[in-house]
Amino acid sequence: MTQPTLADLIDLRLNRRGLIRGAVALTASSPFATAAQEAGPSTLTFKELAHTLNEQQHVAEGYDMQILIRWGDPVVAGAPAFDPANLSAAAQEKQFGYNNDYLGLHPLPYGSKAGDRFLLVANHEYVNPRLMFAGLETERDKSRAQAEVEMAAIGGSVVEIARGGSGWQVVADSKYNRRISVNTLIEISGAAAGHELMKTVADPTGRKVLGTLNNCAGGSTPWGTWLTCEENFNAFFGGDAAKLDPQVVKRYGLGRSQYGWEPHAERFDMGKEPNESNRFGWVVEIDPYEPEAAPVKRTALGRVKHEGCTYALAKDGRVVLYTGDDERFEFVYKFVTARPWNPTDRAANKNLLDEGTLHVARFDADGKVEWLPLVQGQGPLTAENGFASQADVLIKTRLAASLLKPTPMDRPEDIETNPVNGRVYVVLTNNGQRKPDQTDKANPRAANAHGHILEIAPKDGDHAATEGTWSIFLLAGKPGTDAGARYHRATSEQGWLSCPDNIAFDSKGRIWIVTDGAPAAAGVADGVYGADTMGHGRALTRCFYQAPTGAEVCGPIFTPDDRTFFLAVQHPGEDKGSTFEKPSTRWPDFKDGVPPRPSVVAITRKGGGTIGS
Ligand code: FEO
Ligand code: CA
Ligand code: CA
User: Of the N and C termini of the chain, which has fewer Cβ atoms inside 10 Å?
Assistant: First the structure.
């Protein structure tokens, strides 16, 4: 653990005492560094990329980009080649899914260190029907066959990859290669399993469900499993919601389905199968080393629109999982397992995530953060208030959490721990709906169009602690233009960013921020920005990568040797009016008749070396 530097301490003090005043003073005197191309005090020495928005992807000079795998590429043995004019569910079940988001790297063999073979796991979040199929008027109006292609395109993939002389390759027909889709049998465990609200006609036990939905970000466990998170599951359910708890319907945004599956599959019709929607919104644990093992929905981690779920170890070896609920005014959570993990017996950790305590965060004005336990019978979580069991607390997590009065946040996206300084970074992407009288110290801007990042120091460096301190790491937007934007004073005209979403840390503890929602009107694509988190270059963000038009950047992850940086480029071509026939980009293939394809990109340094410096 590195001690905070003097610059860190000054910054913390500034944050606590006069954030907005400090920001105005900073930006009014010097909106940008004069020597924009120079790294200045940053330890990141690459020549900064200019903001660029067009049909291509771009990376800083001196780096190579390789397309590792694209939507429709073969995953499972026997997968047919991608044929965009003749998509079928049977083919898609064996091919790489759509809209890759979270990426994870699991070394092969299990337990080995930093080699050249990994299981790459990827989430497939949602679909862009009008880019996948010819002739669709709307996202909803589709044939049953098309709906079934979509169901096969969502979920996740496990793909063995290997590094060789010509870069990274997918290992064809690896025994580990696997697709998880809306049709995969998944177990339900933890306190909500078997509850009345989890039972359906197809599953009277309430313990088995088909599939996983809207797999956004994720994480891993110390025992090498993959956590994939169900985010905007509500968008897949249609029909009459009258049989559901109206408070749940309202708070989770259930009502109208975005994708129009309900005429084709009854379980997505809330009028016909009201409890099916209760079986989504969970964190799902998958063992990539056991291709036959069923994934498991771990209900102890709560039911919200989980962005991701990343772990840190408590001092006593218990596992702490941080997870954000990505919606305006929703909360930040952490789950602490009841028992420590067992590093010498992998099987002993199999159901570790079924027991523990879920907490929700309150960020106080004095710089303290308190983690409030969501335990039935404690405080207001009683039967009189609608929570007769822990299952009720978990199935209706948002409603239970509100009773504890946590801090409503500006859309909590990724939350990750810096491996060098042990602090936790909470990424808040934006919240255009926050009114001036709803601002607080942790969400200081009304109509927050650009988002910000908080930094938490757990008490005594222990992630299991129910207290800690917090400060603001940066406030996004364009300095000098967007009120309150604040970075390091040397941040350049291309180094500012908007709508931070996911983050990764390299082994030096530097933060790499990917964005979702950059201002296209200003000619800025979503991209990747690197910054120091400590020392004189703290929060000096520098532009490293710009995505093709319509895309957001997801899944940032480094190989343990920092020599490859993988990115998931999601929904390229998702621009207004962009269709299969006339997409705004045909990245990455650029062939007539081939629509844009969400893809995983591997970035390496020309001539070798570590990323960034
Ligand atoms: Fe799927 Fe919160 O991004
Ligand atoms: Ca995200
Ligand atoms: Ca996003």
Answer: N
pLDDT of amino acid 21: 31
Asked whether residue 176 is assigned to any structural domain, the reply reads: yes
Residue 436 lies in a domain: yes
Give me ligand 3 centre to Cα 569, in Å.
Answer: 11
C-alpha 13 – ligand 1 centre gap (Å): 32
Residues with CB under 5 A from ligand 2 (ion): 501
Ligand number nearest CA of 326 is 1
Give the tens place of pLDDT for each residue, 170-180.
999 999 999 99
> In this structure, what are the phi and psi dihedrals at residue 185, rounded to the nearest 5 degrees?
-75, 125
Q: Say if 33 falls within a structural domain.
A: yes
Give tens-digit pLDDT for 565-600. 999 999 999 999 999 999 999 999 999 999 999 999
CB contact burial 319-331 (16+ within 10 A = b; e otherwise): bbbbbbbbbbbbb
Atom from ligand 1 closest to the CA of residue 411: 2
Q: Which ligand lies nearest to the CA atom of residue 232 in the structure?
A: 1
The DSSP output letter for 2 is P
Amino acid (1-letter code) at residue 83:
D
- Give strand pairing partners of 528: 514, 545
- pLDDT, tens digit, for every residue of 267-294? 999 999 999 999 999 999 999 999 999 9
Instruction: Domain of residue 556: give its range.
Output: 6-231+281-315+323-373+407-605
Question: pTM of the predicted model, to two decimals?
Answer: 0.94
Ligand 1 atom closest to Cα of residue 101: 1
Distance 204 CA to ligand 1 centre (A): 32
587 part of a folded domain: yes
489: pLDDT confidence band, cut at 50, 70 and 90?
very high
Confidence grade of residue 38 (pLDDT, cut at 50, 70, 90): low
* Atom nearest to 326 CA in ligand 1: 2
Ligand 2 centroid – CA 297 distance (Å): 20
Q: Please, which residues have CB less than 5 A from ligand 3, an ion?
A: 501, 516
Out of 18-22, 241-245, 440-444, 553-557, pick the least confident. Answer: 18-22
* Ligand 1 atom having least distance to the Cα of 516: 3
Q: What percent of the chain has pLDDT over 90?
A: 92
Q: How far is the CA of 331 from the centre of ligand 2 (A)?
A: 15
Q: How far is the CA of 412 from the centre of ligand 2 (A)?
A: 9
**Cβ count near 243 (within 10 Å):** 13
Using 50, 70 and 90 to split pLDDT, how confident is the model at 97? very high
Q: How many domains does the chain have?
A: 1
Closest ligand 1 atom, residue 305 Cα = 2
Pocket of ligand 1 (CB under 6 A): 125, 216, 231, 307, 326, 413
